[in-house]
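Quick one, T. Sequence first:
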Amino acid sequence: MTTWKGDRPLKADAIIAKNYLTEPELVDLDQLTTQFLDFAEGQARRRLVTTMAQWVETTDRLLTANQYHLLHRGTVAHTAVEEIVDDLWPTYAERRRELDRAEATTAEVMDLTELLQLEHRRDEGSDT
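Structure tokens:
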């Protein structure tokens, strides 16, 4: 995963396909979405009735005009992705907790080391 809100991903983030896009891919997706919505707004403003089949055709033309490959129906159903995430999430969550504990331990050791060094310097200064 590459995109999520907050400082760590949630289980819900794992089932959203766009969360696996890189930053440049997200920019491209945003630009294509804007182009599509601008076109749709023009259609609506002119009160042109458009069927879903026409929207699919229009979207394909938009992608082709922007020199993107046309994607057809995905090979993994959304429900299958949800099942995969349900299976894998507990392992990920436990590993994340272990890493959090290790980071906290490391930070604590560093803090204690710093405190001991400060105490040692203070004690050396009081001997003179």
